[in-house]
Amino acid sequence: MVDDNIKQNITKLEKYAKENKIPIMQKEGIKFLINYIEKNEIKNILEIGTAIGYSAICMALVNPKIKVTTIERDEERYLEAIKNIKLFNLENRITLIFNDALNTKIEGKYDLIFFDAAKAQNINFFNHFEENLASNGTIITDNIFFHGYTYMDPQEIESKNIRAIARKIREYVDFLNDKKNYVTEIKKIGDGVAVTERVQ
Predict the structure, then answer these.
(1) Which of 156, 147, 94 is nearest to 119 (CA)?
(2) pTM over 0.90, yes/no
(3) Taking the CB of residue 186, how many other CB atoms lie within 10 A of it?
(4) Which of 46, 58, 103, 112 maximizes the CB count within 10 A of its CB?
(5) pLDDT tens, residue by residue, 87-142
């Protein structure tokens, strides 16, 4: 049971993210993620894209046996995440790495790998970290709908950059669906969540 002090601190993180325009997982999405971790008794998590530590903290709070390794390349967000992880006394269960994820070599296997970083790099993230996924592990990717742009007519999107990211996300979904030994389900939750489970 999460106590009132923890709830208040979680609310503070959500408020800080909103005020500073830092993208964090939508409430509906984080609720799904927490339930998935609980239901599947996940204990070892790798997160790509820490931001201010919000999702890493929420995941670690599910169970005192959970350990999270999380990677962030933005120094300002990394320093904010360190502060927030200390606020929740989770330094011994959340390992924070300051680096570009694609330049980071991780040892060990993880029950869950969570992608919540540069959307255009999802295929590269998958290829880079696939060897770290446990034999029955899951990769969860946030922002599959990309605020509704992913499946919008590209001609209706004025920004060239947003058009390019939307195209990359569509390519990523096709990539997931084509992957052998994996089953992917796109959940209409929050900003769209892809659940990719490795099958034997």
Answers:
(1) 147
(2) yes
(3) 17
(4) 46
(5) 999 999 999 999 999 999 999 999 999 999 888 899 999 999 999 999 999 999 99
